[in-house]
Amino acid sequence: MIKVGIVGGTGYTGVELLRLLAQHPHVSVAAITSRSETGVKVCDMYPNLRGHYDTLAFSEPDAKQLGAMDAVFFATPHGVAHALAGELLDNGTRVIDLSADFRLRDADEWSRWYDQPHGAPALLDEAVYGLPEMHREKIKNARLIAVPGCYPTAVQLGYLPLLEAGLIDPSQLIADCKSGVTGAGRGAKVGSLLAEASESMKAYGAGGHRHLPEISQGLRDIQQLADIQQTANTQQQPIGLTFVPHLTPMIRGIHATLYGRLTAEPGDLQALFEKRYANEPFVDVMPAGSHPETRSVKGINTCRLAVHRPGNGNTVVVLSVIDNLVKGASGQAIQNLNLMFGFDENTGLTAPALMP
Ligand SMILES: NC(=O)c1ccc[n+]([C@@H]2O[C@H](COP(=O)([O-])OP(=O)(O)OC[C@H]3O[C@@H](n4cnc5c(N)ncnc54)[C@H](OP(=O)(O)O)[C@@H]3O)[C@@H](O)[C@H]2O)c1
User: Fold this and answer.
1) Which atom of ligand 1 is nearest to the CA of 36?
2) How many whole angstroms separate alpha carbon 21 and alpha carbon 27?
3) Whose CA is nearest to atom 20 of ligand 1?
4) Average per-residue pLDDT in the chain?
């Protein structure tokens, strides 16, 4: 049994970590922080957890207490993990950060997108991007994990087989993505009110969203790794991605519709996707002609994909759905923890999705 702490336990990803870890046989949650709810019992604030965490209460973040854990999850806004991660790592505590603090490898680029200086550039070299379908072996030995963002997870998993196979023009990618309102966190915001967000849909960040550099970096990594594996060392074409996120009136879920321009006769695209993900426990390639629904992944760590080639033309369309709070955040964080500590990768993550 390992002991873990969660910084930011009152937010949506924090409480999702608690829900999923309640079923994990090798993990005990020994510390959970909230500055605003210090002293409040977890099950008093979240009655869905009654019977699972009856004595655990929120406390102020304390480096000494957190440093006594085997691993600490950061389910906090950006900038918080920067301040604490170094001290925890020095104590031998592994860090799994759900925020964007360690996702971009370039500290200057991070500070341009997040409007503040990077708080821990010295740790960037050792941070591992926690997308197991790409970096499984590195994750196993990592001390510091940057859990991918929700949109970046859905988009990268959708494009991965096509980019690896060199079948689409990387300079003409279009990702049209929709998210439920929990993607914006639990903090009170006018845009998340029922009267504002329901029965309406809108795009946002069309001119440049913070997930754009993360997705572009990840797609470049896919190209690079594919080149190394094929020892082709081909001239890499730059990634050109148009990414437009939308807010939709649902609570959980990401739906990504991904477009790619084929550069060659692709052969059997369905077989390509099925083969690439045959051994991936959390990627489900649906039968040819399918249209995956966000509700089919509600509460689970699965990304469901379908690939289409409309009219047998030169555009390929990939449909990718995840639960933003699970494969897009807390479930993927636990998948990383399982790999880091040598547990079966799917431990605690096997329950089927909610329906309806
Ligand atoms: N929501 C999603 O779908 C999603 C998906 C992928 C990644 N993420 C990322 O995951 C992180 C958490 O997201 P969320 O949606 O769970 O956020 P949230 O609902 O807004 O919760 C944030 C949590 O962080 C704590 N917190 C805030 N400022 C803090 C500080 N300075 N020091 C310590 N704790 C602090 C808050 O509690 P107190 O203020 O009481 O301390 C709260 O528990 C974010 O970086 C987000 O971008 C979210």
Assistant:
1) 40
2) 7
3) 185
4) 96
